[in-house]
Amino acid sequence: MAAAVATGDVLRVGQGLYALASVAGAEQLALKARAVLFGRSAALAHGLGVLHPPELVEVAVPRGRRARAVPGTRVVTRLLLPCDLVARGAVQATSVVRTVLDCAAGLPFAEGLAIADSALRLGRATPSQLRDAAREWVGRNRRAQQMVLAAMDGRAANAFESGLRAACLEAGVVMEPQVTIGTEGGEYRVDLAKLKLLVAEADSFEWHGGRESLHRDCTRYNELVREGCTVLRFSWEHVMFERAWIGEVVSAVDRRLKLHKSEYKTGEIVPSAA
Q1: What residues are paired with 203 via a beta bridge?
Q2: What domains can you pick out in the chain, each with its CATH number?
Q3: pLDDT (tens digit, 9 = 90+) per residue, 192-231?
């Protein structure tokens, strides 16, 4: 279960509650609405990770066609070109590139970033494809879309981690995903790091529960601290529902490190005096 949650194949929708990434009945509802899968519903149809599954199936109809209200759906009207649509089962969905651009423009930053990161990680789109398509964008919210495209990174391990990185970015702290840090006890790959001095970890209960994993986790944490890292750890609930608080914590620690570590200010590691 932990691996499926980490990859976005299974979504945790509440404490102890999980749902398949594909929204049940989405295709049938899209058919009833005579619409195409759109937004997060299209992202799920393509197997992309999302932070929050939509409460209603998100579908779109072409401009000029009257939207057909169907319970369980949220219908929008959009310019839909044939090149933007692909077959997904019995219905059509916006293509991966179009879906990423729609979500980047229409969703909160963290949501859009998680989907864009996922598309890159899975090899479903390239940065150049997304940026080239964005130049032809005729929709609204271009600025929000550009923020996502500037920050997207295929190294992000999962949507959970992307949400944590988004919270850091919104607080003005740029963190690099999946950084390997060497310590006296070995090498450790951390979720996010800044200059290998500030570390932020997205900790899921499924991954860290149990005596053996607790021992491993404590060793990892202590080795990183011994190496000089300041390690911050955030839970699934923090990332999903308390990103503003994450930003406050990360930015406060970032400011403190800048005051006390010369190597952190300059971006260079300065050897300590013998």
Answers
A1: 235
A2: 2-154 (no CATH), 162-266 (3.40.960.10)
A3: 999 999 999 998 766 556 788 888 999 999 999 999 999 9
